[in-house]
Amino acid sequence: MSLELILAPIVDDLLEVGRALEEELRSEIPAVDRVTRHLLSGRGKLLRPALVILASRSIGEGVSKSAIRAATMIEMIHMATLVHDDMVDGAETRRGIATEEMHPILGIVAETVCRMSAAELIQTDRRGDVTMREEEYLSIAGDKTASLIRASCRIGSVLADGSKADREALSDFGWNFGIAFQIVDDLLDFVGSGRKMGKPVGVDLRDGRVTLPLLYMLKEGSTEERQRIAQMLDVCGVGTEESWEEAIALVKERGGVERTREVAGTYTERAKEAIDTLAPSQAKDTLLLLADFVVDRDG
């Protein structure tokens, strides 16, 4: 099932988020307006805003205006991380959400941004480091990607006035979903479709990023193979096309792909189990479908 079909029940909510994004990012300065329109035209699947909405709908009667505005804020943060620019203005994101609702939201956002920033710095510092351990990789994946996805679910549950148990369930869903999402994203760098991903296969590898499939290859490979990969990562992007293809082939031959899929599947199951206690609803069903989509996607 495609992501579009999975999110069909909330398509009107996502269209409203899209309109809100256009309104928030519109500028009277032509040059700035052209840049923001370009960013909006390629803003992707709106997965994180969808999670805000689904979390809110899964424990509430509907979706409030505050939830739409919070979903818009989350997407703006995500866009900012993609272009490494300060596109999210604090005063702007506070507009339209009641003060009593905004206090816990600001706390979630502040914590999340700190985690994401620290993870980006750590990942940059560990570039090409073949001594990285699996638990270190998972910690980076959690703070870099899962923290914002968890924040989406937490904010949605807060705005729906969910119980403590419901908020914790959706928070756990978001964290595990987010780690699975990042693991699969890293896996697709070796086995994905460049056309569907919008980038060539092997980009992370060429950039010296040590991800889970590569860690498993390094664990199972021979001393000579590990040394060869270490040398390639040490000179990010300098290797020949043949050498990068060789590295990708080694990851596949040494079981890196299969083991990585298994780990992603484990986190997906944890995400689904986390919301077992939520009352039956279309939103809950959609969250479960999204979890399955994460491990099945190819781009």
TrEMBL record:
Q: Which InterPro entries match?
A: Isoprenoid_synthase_dom_sf, Polyprenyl_synt, Polyprenyl_synt_CS
Q: Which domain of life is it from?
A: Bacteria
Where does the signal peptide begin and end?
none
List cofactor names only.
Answer: Mg(2+)
Any keyword Magnesium?
A: yes
Family named by the database record: Belongs to the FPP/GGPP synthase family.
Which protein are we looking at? Polyprenyl synthetase
Gene source species:
candidate division TA06 bacterium DG_24
